[in-house]
Amino acid sequence: MPLKVMTIFGTRPEAVKMAPLVKELESRAEIQSICCITAQHRQMLDDVLQLFAIQPDYDLDIMEARQSLYTITSKCLLGMEEVFSREKPDLVLVHGDTSTTFSGALAAFYQKIAVGHVEAGLRTWDKYSPFPEEMNRTLVGDLAEFHFCPTQANRENLLREGLREGIFVTGNTVIDALKTTVRPDYRFRSQLLNTLDYTRKQVILVTCHRRENYGQPMTNIMRALRRIVEDFPQVELVYPVHLSPVVQEAARAHLSGHDRIHLIEPLTPDEMHNVMARSAFVMTDSGGLQEEAPALGRPVLVLRRETERPEAVAAGTVLLAGTEEDVIYGHAARLLTDPAAYRAMAQAVNPYGDGQACRRIVDAILWKRGLRDQPPEEFSAG
């Protein structure tokens, strides 16, 4: 009998990083791959499923207008109780730090199903930032049997917490995904993105949507972005605005009405990866872009007070810009006017992977289950 492995994800960032793993699981004769989505993000998730040609076996379809952490978590738990009772998987794989991730791991634990945590060991050591992601990720670590860490630093975080078994350093699966999406001849669906002058203009790609940035921090960020465009005529700012009503309202209030600020709909993963590859640099409060942009040699200004991804900060390709207007503006201005500072950050240092993370994860599962003779070699950025 093949090993029955179920992948669970519900948001677009999870889907981008889990899609190549689903494909790797499907390619192995020793594994029966089952895919369950919660659709915590409906529209944005569907774009990823279409891009990677993934047909889920189960779709909980939980998303509702202005959903809360309470509704997401409770609907995930109840939906997955039924799925697990029907399928009885040998192993459940969850990713990262979303409410889907925590709910999937907890639901599996309730039925004594083993849990594998993909992208394990990231920490800020502040349980309220990012919120609720830091605690989601930490709690899943306590529930999991397998811990698939992108980097050695992530492994050390888990060791610091007292974990000793089932830890593997694999690299990040997002690098596996990038290998399939970024192309020099890529054509965007939006004519705007096809016609921007990426050579003579300085295109800044922006994302901003974190819950902990709601309110004054987001206002500060938006004001800094507006100042940057107004003060530097060579800048074109591309901002795919998150579907959250809070984010939509803030972006329109502070950034609309300028001909070099392009507030556009959320991009599909392949579009996001390719516009990132052509941009001068990235300003974001996202976690995933902190991993993707260094792989493409693009500097990143992180619009947060801390990051659970310090490897690129140490490598010099990511800088914590915080959420104060003047500080954000100053860091961006330096990248726009100081070629040496830009080159120092644009060095293509990639501490997050080599495109083989999914193979390592599946090899580790098979080895631990006695279906492979040797453990996988570990990823090393050095």
Q: State the strand order across the main sheet.
A: 3-2-1-4-5-6-7
**Which class do the helix and strand fractions yield?**
alpha/beta
Give the biggest sheet.
7 strands, parallel
CATH class of the largest domain: Alpha Beta
- Any idea what the radius of gyration is? 20 Å
What is the helix tally?
A: 16
User: What portion of the residues fall into strands of 2 or more residues?
Assistant: 15-25%
Protein name: UDP-N-acetylglucosamine 2-epimerase (non-hydrolyzing)
Keywords: Isomerase
Enzyme class: isomerase
GO molecular function: UDP-N-acetylglucosamine 2-epimerase activity
Concise description?
The protein has 382 residues and is of the alpha/beta class. The protein has two domains: 3-172 and 353-369, Rossmann fold (3-Layer(aba) Sandwich), CATH 3.40.50; 191-347, Rossmann fold, CATH 3.40.50.2000.
Keywords:
Rossmann fold, EC 5.1.3.14, UDP-N-acetylglucosamine 2-epimerase activity, isomerase, UDP-N-acetylglucosamine 2-epimerase (non-hydrolyzing), alpha/beta, 7-stranded parallel beta sheet, 382 residues, WecB-like
Structural summary, described in words:
The chain contains 16 helices and 13 strands. A seven-stranded parallel β-sheet has the order 3-2-1-4-5-6-7, sandwiched between helices. A six-stranded parallel β-sheet has the order 10-9-8-11-12-13, sandwiched between helices. Helix 9 links the parallel strand 8 and strand 9. 45% of the residues lie in helices and 15% in strands. It folds into two domains: 3-172 and 353-369, Rossmann fold (3-Layer(aba) Sandwich); 191-347, Glycogen Phosphorylase B (Rossmann fold, 3-Layer(aba) Sandwich). Helix 9 (216-231) runs parallel beside helix 10 (245-255). The chain has helices at residues 12-26, 42-51, 69-87, 99-110, 133-143, 152-160, 173-181, 191-195, 216-231, 245-255, 269-278, 288-295, 311-315, 325-337, 339-346, 357-368; strands at residues 3-9, 31-37, 58-59, 91-95, 114-118, 146-149, 167-169, 202-207, 235-240, 261-264, 281-284, 300-302, 318-320. It has 382 residues and is α/β, with parallel strands linked by helices. It comes from Evtepia gabavorous.
